[in-house]
C-alpha cells in the first residue's frame, strides 16, 4: 500500500494546538475538515476511499510552521500524488509544504546536489517567474526570469471576480512559464496574491489552473505576502542589521513590513493597489485620450488618507522607528527609473551624500522632493496617450502610474519617509528563500548578502587555485591598509594622510575587489584584468552593492596589474573626484597585496607596517613549511611586490621598502616605532 502527502498551515485549522491524530474515511471528509482550502494540499486524485488513518501534526502555538498530513490509501502513489514520485524517497518528518509543492509542480532536481527552483508570483498586474540554482548551503544564482503583463485584476472594479478574459491570459502565461521551468528542470512553486485572494471565484480559478496547466497555486494571505517580500528584500540589500520599513505597491494591494535581523515585527496588507485605485477613481478604459481631472486626483488622495489612517500602519511606524525605507515592485521601480532618467539627462551632476555623483552611478533611491516633482509631472500630463511619452517612464505603466505615484506620495507623507531605496528583489525571491529555508536544515538567509554575493561570483568563475590565492591576497590587503591607517609616530601622525581617506566601507570594497581580481581568467589569461572588469561590472549576482560600488570593484580589478588609474580612462574619469582618490589608494595597496602571493601559494603569513622617519617599511613574515619546519622562500613574492612600490610611493607620498622578517626582527622594529599587525 502506497501513501501520498499533504500539507496545510496551522492557521488553516482553528483552535489547533499540540500534536493531533485525526482519522478520516475519505478524501471528501478530509477536505471538509474545518473548511480547509483545497489549494493548501498536494494534488490528490480521488480513485477510492482511504483505508488507513491520516496523521496530522504541527508545532504547538505556531501558525507559521506547516502541518503534515500523511494519507495512506488503497491506490498507488502515482494516481494519488499525480506525478509518479515515490514517497518512500522522502523522510516524512523532514518534509514541508514548500518541498511537497516543489516536487508536485516540478520535474527534476539539479545534478551535484544543487536545487533548481522556479518561483512564480501571480500578481494583480503582472506574473513574474524567477529560476535559480541553489547549492547545499542555499547560495543561489539567477538562471532565468520571465514576466507577462496579465492584468489578472482588470475587468472588476473591486477585484471581486476573475473575468473569463483574465483567466485565459493567466492560463496562457502559466503554460509558458511551466514550459520554461521544465526546460530548466526546475521545481516550481506558484503563489497568488490580491487578485486571487479576493476573488469570489478563486476556488474555481485555482482548480482551472490545476486542470489546464497541472500547477497547484498557493494563495497567500496579505500578511504572508508581506513577510515573504521582506525576505526577498533582504537578499538584495545589505540591511539585515537595520530596522527597515518595506513598502510594496502592487496592482491590488500594498504591503507594509517593519523588520529587523530577518524577523518581521509588523506586517500588514491594505487594499490599496494601482489597478484597484485606477479602476475606482480614475479614467480607465480604451479611450487613451480621456483627460485626467483634478477632482479625480483629489478624491483619490482623500480615499488613500482614510485607509491609511484607519489601518493602524501610521501608529505602528511611529511606535517602531525605522532606519531605512525600502520600496519594491513595478510601480516604485518605474518611478525610480523616471527620476533616474531625469538625473542622467541633467547637465549638472547630482550631489549624493555630499559628493557629486554622475547619473549612471547613482544609487537606486530617491528623496521625497524628487518623488514630489515626479508626481507633479505625471499628474500634469492629462491623458494616458501623453503619459506614455514621459521620458524614463515605462510605456506599459502609463494607464496606472497616476494612482501608483499618488499612493506612494501619500505613503511618504503619512509615514514621514524622506528617502527610499529601491530593491530589485521582492515576493518571488522571498518565495525562493522561504522554500530553501524549509528544504535546507542549516540555511540562514540574508545575514551578510554582500559577502555571500562576492563568494557566489568567485565560485562561479573559480579557476585552479586562484580563488584561494585571491582570498589570501585580500587578507594581506586589509593588513596593509590597517597598518597604514593606524601606525603612529611620537607626534601621533598617520603614516600617510591619503590612507585616512579610506573608511571601513572602503576597506571592505578593497577586500571584495581583491577576492575577485582573477575572475577574468575564466575567459583568457591574456588581458584577464580587463575581462575581470567586464565580468564584475555586468554581473547581476553582486547583490547588496550600489552601482557606484560595483564600478569601484570592477575598476580595482581592472587596475590591479598593468596600467594604473588614469583620467584618460573614461570609466575612471566619470567617478566623483573624492572617489577617484580612494580608488587610487586602494589600487596601490591591492597591487602590492596581489604581488605578495605571486606564486599562488600563500607563502606569506603576515604583513606589518612600520614608519621610519619619512618612509614606510613593509615587513613580511613567511609561512612555515610544514615538511621542513623552516620559513618558506618568499624571494619571488618580495621581488614582485617591489615592482609595485613606485606607484605605492607616489600615492602615499612616502618612500617605501619591503623586508623579510621573523619574530626577532619584529621585536627590534617595535622598539623603534609602533606597528599594527593582524593575523591573516
Topology:
Elements: E1 3-9, E2 19-22, H1 27-31, E3 54-57, E4 66-72, H2 77-81, H3 97-105, E5 115-122, E6 127-134, E7 140-148, H4 164-183, E8 187-192, H5 194-198, H6 202-213, E9 217-219, H7 222-234, E10 243-249, E11 254-260, E12 263-270, H8 274-281, H9 294-311, H10 313-319, E13 324-328, H11 330-344, E14 350-352, E15 355-357, E16 365-367, H12 368-380, H13 384-387, H14 401-415, E17 419-423, H15 427-439, H16 449-460, H17 466-486, H18 504-516, H19 528-537, H20 547-558, H21 570-573, H22 577-595, E18 604-612, E19 615-622, H23 635-642, H24 645-652, E20 655-660, H25 663-672, E21 675-676
Would you give an account of this structure?
The protein is of the alpha+beta class and 680 residues long. The protein has four domains: 1-95, no CATH class; 96-221, 2-Layer Sandwich (Nucleotidyltransferase, domain 5), CATH 3.30.420; 237-424, Exopolyphosphatase. Domain 2 (Nucleotidyltransferase, domain 5); 449-676, Hypothetical protein af1432 (Orthogonal Bundle). The protein is 41% helix and 18% strand. It has 25 helices and 21 strands. α19 (528-537) runs antiparallel to α20 and α22 packs antiparallel against α24.
